[in-house]
Amino acid sequence: MPVTQGRSRRDRNNVLNRPEFMSLNQPLKTNNPEVRGSGRRPPHKQQQCQHQAPENAPQEPQENNKDRRESIKLPEEDCMQLNPSFKGIAINSLLAIDICMSKRLGVCAHHTSSCGSMRSIVNMLALTGHGIPWIVGTIWCLTRSNTLAGQEVLINLLLALLLDIMTVAGVQKLVKRKGPWEMSPSFLDYLAMDVWSFPAAHASRAAMVSKFLLAHLVLAVPLRILLVLWAFLVGLSRVLLGRHHLTDVGFGFALGYLHYTLVEMVWLSSNTCQTIISTLSWMPLF
Length: 286
Description:
Elements: H1 2-13, H2 33-37, H3 43-56, H4 62-72, H5 86-105, H6 119-127, H7 131-144, H8 148-175, H9 187-191, H10 201-216, H11 221-240, H12 246-265, H13 270-279
Helix pairs in contact: 6-11, 7-8, 8-10, 8-12, 10-11, 10-12, 11-12
């Protein structure tokens, strides 16, 4: 009697014995006689079906499978990095700010821009930092110079200008960064190999020339201030015209100062300059 009472109490306390859960205790009703006799299919039959399925299924050629895998793969630029590094986030954020600010400052990019009426003036200011006028002007001054000191300074300035043009053209060819407004280069830009945006060739040249003239010419204080202001405005004019980003101009200024430092390190003496001039004396300009 105590055993039967304990069982009856456990049956009453069992949750599955409640009316709403009675269906869980009933066996699964199926029309398949094999499943009705046993709750699941025998393992040896499952293995037979697994072995027979590949034999009966049509075999697709391997080429179709490869094409299907390649079509599923997404290109790398469309894949999202779920865990980007902090460095990558910071660089992408700075680049986005640079592009946004450069486009906002490009107020003279077109004639229909907010300051399109000043486009011609800004173009003239940017032309003062172009490489072709500086090279032609330096050669012309060299042909008119009669002093050894003047010829020495002009030869080294010409060397610095050529170094600046070649270095900037090489870096631009490697980086191939487009401007904020993606404008086509002019004829003079093609001559000076100033085709891409990074770094800004005008800013590099202006910084190098201004530093060179400040170091080797005796100028009054107002002229020295105007020379530094000119270099800054040349770099700014390229941003206003929509040709370069702000970072392009900044790196251009740094590259120009580097060019000046290199020229000062390999400064050609007066004797070397006279040798170069005598070698080029067969040219009609000299």
